Amino acid sequence: MAQRKRFGEILVEAGIISEASLRQALDQQKGSGRRLGRVLEELGVVSEKDIAVTLSRQFGFKTVGGLERYSFTPEVLELVSGSQVLEKLIFPLKKQDKSLFLAMVNPLDMETIDNLTFRTGLKIVPCVTTPTEIQAAANKFYLVDKQEEASDWWTILIVEDQELTRAAVAAALRKQGYTVLQAENGAVGLKEAHQHKPHLIVTDTVMPRMDGYELFRALKGNPATANIPVIAMSSKSSPEEEAAVLDMGYFDFIGKPINPVRLAARTRRALKMTYGEGDPPPR
């Protein structure tokens, strides 16, 4: 929270936003998992370019853009996984001597910088960019095997680490005529969400690598996936758990074991309320 407040104070000190706008944004951000910059953009008081320019001026970071127009060596791209690119909004630019130049939406994210330094043994040199730039670069360099979307029906992504549960949920949704994508954990699910842009995501809350809560925050923190409705599944089907999940911003909650009739009804409701009647919108 201190890091988020510091970022907001930087924007106030630079004259980009007012104290009142910052307070409003912080209030809306609470419990949502969204980046402060994302909330400010939604309020219409700042653009992603404003944020990048402000950070660059305040801390002397270099700004970078047009990433998808350049070429990057496999050696450099392999230093950061596709899921890290999408979750942390970072992109590896070049390796020079013992340094890695890294495009970052938030160059003040010391946790990510420290983790990369530890894993690669390289000094991280942050460069400022925007979420749109990261998404465009990820689409070109990390999601190169992107396939055509099914155009004749709704596409739903299931994220669940238990194979039997995942298969049962997939079978129930296919029976309803949906196109079903599957992922065994949140990290894979995040990549699938960016690659295929499903109309709905149904995810377990407890998983290895990246759990459902981390996945949800990553989805809502990126403009490319922020509007995809997400239904949570959990074996902790208490009223308290359901309330906590809904308060986070999930569209709906389904307790385990999954009832196929309930799943189908909640899925239809989510699609109808999000997209309205008629055929699926293009993704």
- Class by SSE composition: alpha/beta
Strand content: 15-25%
Q: How many E strands?
A: 9
Note the gap between the termini. Answer: 34 Å
Whole-number total of structural domains: 3
CATH topology of the largest domain: Rossmann fold
Which architecture of the largest domain per CATH? Answer: 3-Layer(aba) Sandwich
Radius of gyration: 20 Å
Which sequence of SSEs, written as H and E, runs from N to C?
HHHHEHHEEHEHEHEHEHEHEH
Q: At the fourth CATH level, what is the homologous superfamily of the largest domain?
A: Response regulator
CATH C-level category of the largest domain: Alpha Beta
**Mean of residue pLDDT values:** 85
Query: Within the largest sheet, what's the order of strands?
Result: 6-5-7-8-9
Sheet with most strands: 5 strands, parallel
> Into which percent range does the helicity of residues fall?
40-55%
Number of helices: 13
Overall spatial form: globular
Unreliable runs: 1-5, 146-152
Keywords: Phosphoprotein
Modified residues (4-aspartylphosphate): 204
Organism: Geoalkalibacter ferrihydriticus DSM 17813
Protein name: Response regulatory domain-containing protein
Q: What can you tell me about this protein's structure?
A:
The modification 4-aspartylphosphate is found at residue 204. Residues 155-271 form the Response regulatory domain. Keywords: Phosphoprotein. With 283 residues, this protein is of the alpha/beta class. It has 3 domains: 2-46, no CATH class; 62-141, GMP Synthetase, Chain A, domain 3 (2-Layer Sandwich), CATH 3.30.300.160; 155-275, Rossmann fold, CATH 3.40.50. It contains 13 helices and 9 strands. The chain has a 5-stranded parallel sheet with strand order 6-5-7-8-9, sandwiched between helices. Strands 1-4-3-2 form a 4-stranded mixed sheet. Helix 6 packs across helix 10 and helix 10 (186-196) runs parallel beside helix 11 (212-220). It is globular, with a radius of gyration of 20 Å.
